[in-house]
């Protein structure tokens, strides 16, 4: 695989952290892999792939809270300027003017409604029972992504209107970051030569570093989709792909969609397969999207790791890590001086996303259980103080060793199955988060990660059909 950073066209400007892991959402309902928050019908799936055999279809009409709000002040002036220009136009049909007036008024009312929902925290009663601002903006970005990309199931350029909608409303939501600053003392010289110390505002460091990188990844993903304008492949509305192949280390099935996702378009190529030029173009774009996916994953993992662990999650932790993991896994983790998490996962023979997600939740819960036990002697109630005391704990303590091994097992599990939904802990962090800056960075990186994963999946489908046609020849 070519390195994306070496490409002239695709310079990420961001190096993924080697310790980054894919952390996805855990269901709070009976349906695995999905979660709801404050009555919102969308999930925190970071790799929401329509081509995944375990993802549910996205329907614009299912989002009762509507897409995220558009930039009301900008849109208002834009709409009013268009209205003001109408009297200066010559020879304009009256019927077209009436239709334009109606469309402008409709757009204006829709923007008012979206802006009101954002201010009210999705509580249209106005009684103050809505969710926090951070959660509201996170929901708005997630809903906007579903509105713009939810029905995009194939490799093709984005619709012009949807591309404009995505850019316009994301610019509005991201503009909040312009006012999230941190203060630092700086020296300033007055006119009389006196030097005084004043507090200067600068962009918050996490936003200053990550937001430009995410915006660049966003632009690159759009460019990848736009590059598939004239293609040698096309899509059939219904059907199933021949073969029975499954990607190694992934639950996403690229074959036999007839029973699971029969409505998805299936890529088709001419007899003999694609030309070498088209095949090379697909592989290059796949490698680019794969690197973008890793970069978005790294940013999302970093932001989630910086979010505070809710007290509600700590209160629900089991008293015993052994009871949480089970006798078999616990015995393997306790025996031997050298722990091999990959070998343990091979022995478990995980066959579905539900099993992998359930194991991830159990391992994560046992990890924090053992960490809490290793710090009990300090009798600190605050989890922040507990984290500070981790450095003082005995490295040979059994609970500390087990917690380290559980962390390595969780890392290996998420690396092997990157399309897993978010765990219970990650979902709780997003629900309880009150930091608007972190909410924007987390949701933005999550939806870009999902789009990049989908693009890689769509390209893999086309290459799979191409290989099938060549083998038949």
What can be said about this structure in brief?
By secondary structure, the protein is mainly α. The protein has helices at residues 72-85, 94-119, 133-149, 160-174, 205-226, 276-306, 311-315, 321-325, 327-334, 341-348, 353-374, 383-389, 398-416, 424-432, 436-472, and strands at 24-25, 181-189, 195-203, 233-236, 266-269, 422-423. It starts with 23 loop residues before the first strand and ends with a helix.
Secondary structure elements and pairings:
Blueprint: E1 24-25, H1 72-85, H2 94-119, H3 133-149, H4 160-174, E2 181-189, E3 195-203, H5 205-226, E4 233-236, E5 266-269, H6 276-306, H7 311-315, H8 321-325, H9 327-334, H10 341-348, H11 353-374, H12 383-389, H13 398-416, E6 422-423, H14 424-432, H15 436-472
Parallel strand pairs: 1-6
Antiparallel strand pairs: 2-3, 4-5
Helix pairs in contact: 1-2, 3-4, 3-15, 5-6, 5-15, 6-15, 10-13, 11-13
């Amino acid at each position: 695989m070519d390195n994306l950073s070496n490409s002239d066209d695709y310079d990420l400007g961001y190096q993924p952290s080697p310790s980054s892991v894919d952390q996805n959402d855990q269901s709070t309902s009976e349906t695995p892999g999905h979660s709801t928050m404050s009555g919102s019908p969308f999930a925190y799936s970071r790799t929401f792939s329509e081509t995944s055999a375990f993802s549910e279809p996205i329907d614009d009409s299912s989002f009762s809270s509507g897409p995220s709000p558009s930039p009301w002040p900008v849109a208002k002036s834009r709409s009013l300027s268009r209205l003001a220009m109408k009297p200066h136009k010559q020879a304009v049909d009256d019927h077209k003017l009436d239709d334009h007036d109606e469309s402008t008024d409709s757009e204006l009312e829709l923007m008012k409604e979206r802006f009101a929902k954002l201010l009210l925290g999705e509580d249209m009663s106005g009684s103050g029972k809505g969710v926090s601002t951070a959660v509201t903006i996170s929901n708005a970005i997630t809903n906007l992504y579903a509105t713009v990309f939810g029905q995009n199931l194939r490799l093709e350029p984005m619709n012009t209107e949807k591309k404009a909608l995505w850019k316009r409303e994301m610019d509005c939501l991201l503009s909040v970051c312009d006012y999230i600053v941190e203060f630092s003392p700086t020296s300033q010289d007055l006119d009389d030569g006196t030097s005084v110390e004043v507090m200067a505002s600068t962009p918050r460091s996490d936003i200053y570093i990550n937001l430009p990188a995410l915006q660049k990844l966003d632009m690159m993903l759009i460019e990848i989709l736009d590059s598939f304008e004239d293609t040698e492949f096309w899509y059939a509305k219904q059907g199933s792909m021949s073969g029975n192949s499954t990607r190694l280390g992934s639950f996403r099935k690229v074959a036999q969609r007839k029973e699971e996702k029969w409505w998805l378009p299936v890529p088709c190529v001419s007899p003999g397969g694609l030309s070498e030029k088209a095949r090379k173009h697909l592989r290059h774009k796949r490698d680019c999207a794969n690197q973008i996916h890793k970069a978005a994953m790294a940013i999302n993992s970093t932001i989630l790791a910086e979010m505070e662990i809710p007290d509600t999650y700590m209160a629900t932790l089991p008293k015993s890590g052994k009871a949480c993991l089970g006798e078999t896994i616990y015995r393997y983790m306790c025996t031997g001086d050298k722990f091999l998490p990959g070998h343990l996962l091979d022995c478990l023979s995980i066959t579905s996303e539900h099993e992998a997600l359930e194991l991830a939740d159990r391992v994560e819960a046992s990890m924090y259980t053992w960490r809490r036990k290793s710090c009990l002697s300090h009798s600190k109630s605050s989890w922040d103080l507990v984290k500070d005391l981790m450095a003082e704990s005995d490295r040979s303590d059994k609970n500390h060793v087990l917690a380290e091994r559980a962390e390595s097992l969780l890392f290996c599990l998420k690396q092997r199955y990157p399309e897993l939904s978010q765990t219970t802990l990650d979902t709780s962090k997003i629900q309880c988060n009150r930091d608007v800056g972190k909410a924007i960075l987390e949701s933005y990186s999550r939806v870009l990660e999902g789009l990049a994963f989908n693009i890689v999946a769509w390209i893999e489908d086309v290459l799979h059909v191409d290989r099938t046609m060549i083998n038949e020849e």
